[in-house]
Amino acid sequence: MAVHNQPQHHTRFRFPSLHRTGTAQAATDTTAATTTVSAYAFASLRLLTGFVFLWAFLDKTFGFGYATPSGKGWVDGGSPTKGFLSSVAAGPMESTFHDWAGAGWANWLFMLGLLGIGVALIAGVALRLAAVAGTVMMALMWVAEWPPAKHLSDGSLSMSSNPFADYHLIYAVVIIALAAAGAGATWGLGKVWAKIPIVRDNNWLK
Q1: What is the rounded distance in angstroms from the CA atom of residue 116 to the CA atom of residue 53?
Q2: Beta-strand runs (E) in the chain
Q3: Of 6, 64, 144, 161, which sits with the fewest C-beta atoms within 10 Å of its C-beta?
Q4: In contact, 130 and 117? CB cutoff 8 Å
Q5: Going by C-beta distance under 8 Å and a sequence separation of 6 or more, which residues neighbour residue 63?
């Protein structure tokens, strides 16, 4: 009678791989560090961009002597749009901008836009609304300066340095990127703002 020996299966104890665990932990730490650095970088960019808009509002309102001469501020009876729009000398909306220059509704819309965008960016709230308003404002200012023009309407050189990309376009892209990245959560009130019921139920308000 043949006797068949059954193979014996032994359970082997395996020590956890310290190398694998260490690699995974290092990758996690690196990812977390990169995320933190990105958050701070976006927050810094948000605050600086917001200050650009808020300062423009304050200077045009009170005439601090920078872009707006002292005594020529909005509170002194000056117009925040007349100087810029009346000097438009190129582009398809040249005559339209001349008609808008100094108009009461244009002054109010422009100034409220500067204030709203500036406050939203600095506080880190309503970034999507700020992105829409900022993009519209920058698009209109881009058309007013009309970078594609080589010559102005009087025939003189426009001195445009680039036929497409100028600082208005850059500002618009920056504001859109800040809204897309949710940059209000770091050094801002973005998290608190997102918990407000009406904001929580309407993502376009974030």
Answers
A1: 9
A2: none
A3: 6
A4: yes
A5: 69, 70, 71, 72, 73, 74, 75, 76, 78
**∠76-78-83 over CA atoms, to 5°?**
155
> Which strand (E) or helix (H) includes residue 206?
none
Instruction: Give the burial class of 3: count Cβ atoms within 10 A of its Cβ; 0-12 exposed, 13-18 middle, 19 or more buried.
Output: exposed
Question: What residues does 151 pair with on adjacent strands?
Answer: 157
What percent of the chain clears pLDDT 70, i.e. is strictly above it? Answer: 86
- What pairs with residue 157 in β-bridges? 151
User: Confidence band (pLDDT; 50, 70, 90) for 71?
Assistant: very high
Q: Mention every residue, 6+ apart, whose C-beta is less than 8 A from residue 117.
A: 50, 53, 130, 133, 134, 137, 175
Q: Tokens representing 162?
A: 């680039």
CB of 110 within 8 A of CB of 118? no
Buried b (16+ CB within 10 A) or exposed e, 121-147: bbbbbbbbbbbbbbbebbebbbbbbbb
Residue 126: closest CA among 75, 50, 68, 52: 50
Q: How many residues does the chain have?
A: 206
> What is the pTM for the complete model shown?
0.85
The residues near 157 (Cβ < 8 Å, ≥ 6 apart) are 150, 151
User: In angstroms, what is the C-alpha Rg of the chain?
Assistant: 28
Residue 77: alpha-carbon gap to chain centroid? 31
